[in-house]
Structures are given as structure tokens and as C-alpha cells.
Amino acid sequence: MTSPSATLAYQQLRESILGVDLLPGEVLTEARLGERLQTSRTTVRGALARLENEGLIRKTGRSFIVAPIDLREIEEAFAFRSVLEVGALRLAFPTVTPERLAWVRDRASEFGDDTSIGDHMDRATRFHVDLAGLSGNRLIVRSLEDVLLRLARARWLEARGDGGLARSHADHLHLLDLVAARQEDAAATHLHAHIQRSCSRLVQALRDDRRGLGLRGLAVHT
């Protein structure tokens, strides 16, 4: 069982990476992180193992680095998301009930305008996982959870952009309206477009600002 201190260290480091307080390419050592978090190297080691499993850091010799932002990997991951999520949506149509849709909608609307970016990101992630769960296919859900973890930092950067959170939430609610109206093709098209727009906004922003990102220490691989 993971100790409370290890869980806290993991959460603090993960938030620092997602929020780009720890820069892509930055070297991480157990000693320095232990001082930063005021905790033991053993605790830090457990947190680093979880972050490595999520693809947020990479082992290099005796230390770790924050994983660079890889634009090609981001594009591939978003394409994989679209295949998974649209497929799951179509699988769900024959059996989805109004009660299950209402449950997904309620969970998608739990936070208000003053909610933090992190909480909004958690809500958006949960929405996509809940939606895929309507298919009843556990393998699809697990695969989606994995790819969303690997896209977490990219999606965080996108969410910090102007109006991204509001657009995303409106898209989610409209998608549920289409499912409730039994418009399968329209819902599938809308979901695919929603994922593609998200990918395009993020990748274009990173490409446009590649020089600036590099000067600030962010390693952006193409």
C-alpha cells in the first residue's frame, strides 16, 4: 500500500510537471527533490516510479529528466484517442439509457466558474472516461485512461489558453444532447471534431512558439 507521504510527494511533483514549474528536459535527482518536498529519498523514489510509468519523466543514468514535449507523439496519441472514443461511443448507442446519460451530465457539471484549472482538467478527463464507459468495454476504458495520462501535460497547456475550458465544456454538453437525441452519426462526428480541434490548437500553439519555448528551457521534440 502506498503511504500518504508518498502519495503527497507524487501529487506535488505531478502538479509541478503538468503546470510546467518543472521544465521539460530538467534534471531531477532524489536528493534535490527530497529537499524541495521536505521528505525522504525513499518517498521521492516511489513518486518518481509512478511519474515514470505515466511517461512524465524518463530515467537517464542515475537521475531522471522531465520528459520533453514530443509533438509527433502528441498527434499520434490524439489520433488514438479519436479511434478509441468514437468506437466506444458507437458501441454504447444500442444500450445507453437516459439515466446513464443524466449521470454523465451531472458529473460533468459539478464544478463552477471559480474552479481551478486542475479541477477542470480532472472533470474533462472524467467526462471522456465516463462516456467511454457507457460502451461497457473495460479494455477500451483502460486504454483511454492510459492515453489520457500520457497527454495530461499537453492537455494542461491547452487548457491554460484563452477560452479553452469553456469551449471544451460546451462541446461536452452538446455531445450529450446528440446522444440523447439518438443521433449516432452526428454524435460520432462531433466527438471526432472535438478531439481534433483540441489537438490542432495545442500542436499549432507549440509549433508557433517553438523558439520561445526553447529559450525558456522547454525541450519540444518534432
TrEMBL record:
Q: Which residues cross the membrane?
A: none
Instruction: List each copy of the HTH gntR-type domain by range.
Output: 3-69
In Pfam terms, one family for this protein is GntR
Cytoplasm recorded as keyword: no
Enumerate the InterPro entries for this protein. GntR_C, TF_FadR/GntR_C, Tscrpt_reg_HTH_GntR, WH-like_DNA-bd_sf, WH_DNA-bd_sf
PROSITE patterns cross-referenced by the UniProt entry: HTH_GNTR
Provide this UniProt record's keywords sorted from A to Z.
Answer: DNA-binding, Transcription, Transcription regulation
What is the protein's name according to its record? GntR family transcriptional regulator
